[in-house]
Amino acid sequence: MDFSNNKAIYLQIAEYVCEHILLGKWKPQDKIPSVRELAVDMEVNPNTVMRTYELLQKQNIITNKRGIGFFLAQDAIANVNIYRKTTFIEDELPQLFRNMYLLEIDFEELKNRYQTFVTENFNA
Predict the structure, then answer these.
(1) At what angle do helices 9-22 and 35-42 cross, to 10 degrees?
(2) pLDDT tens-digit map of 78-110
(3) Is the alpha carbon torsion for 115, 121, 123, 124 positive or negative?
(4) Which of 11, 13, 28, 77 is the most buried (most CB within 10 A)?
(5) pLDDT over 90 at 20, yes or no
(6) Strand partners for 72
(7) At 71, which helix (H) or strand (E)?
(8) Would you state the pLDDT for residue 124?
(9) What is the reported pLDDT for 86?
């Protein structure tokens, strides 16, 4: 995985895990990769993945069954939506609004581009 410099790696890994959940690659109550497995896959230190898993546990997205491993919570999808929506609204939306204002992009143009994006990427 290619990491960007503008966000902590453990948060980028959390986004990766959340995407897998939202795309249905990992299902509620499924066992997910161990800390070491994901660290190897991501080419990061296991402590970084552990930090990600601790964050996701606090958000009630994953649970730890001691001695067995980490599993998705039953309501993982709903909790991912809450977590991602909150993060987007608090961290990313203000920057988007700032750029829209500076570049004089109105909501109608944004709406049209959004509809085109959805059509091209999700209605295939």
Answers:
(1) 100
(2) 999 999 999 999 999 999 999 999 999 999 999
(3) positive
(4) 13
(5) yes
(6) 62
(7) strand 69-72
(8) 59
(9) 95
How far apart (Å, rounded) are the C-alpha atoms in residues 63 and 66? 9
* Best CA proximity match to 18, nearest among 115, 86, 97, 67: 86
Read off the pLDDT of residues 5-18 as tens digits, 9 standing for 90 and up: 888 999 999 999 99
Whole-angstrom distance, CA of residue 43 vs CA of residue 39: 6
116 touches 122 (CB < 8 A):
no
Answer whether residue 51 shows pLDDT above 80. yes
Residues contacting 94, CB < 8 A, separation 6+? none
Question: What is the average pLDDT value for the chain, to the nearest integer?
Answer: 94
**Residue written as token pair 């988007």:** 96
List domains and CATH numbers for the chain. 9-76 (1.10.10.10)
User: What residue has token string 């795309």?
Assistant: 23
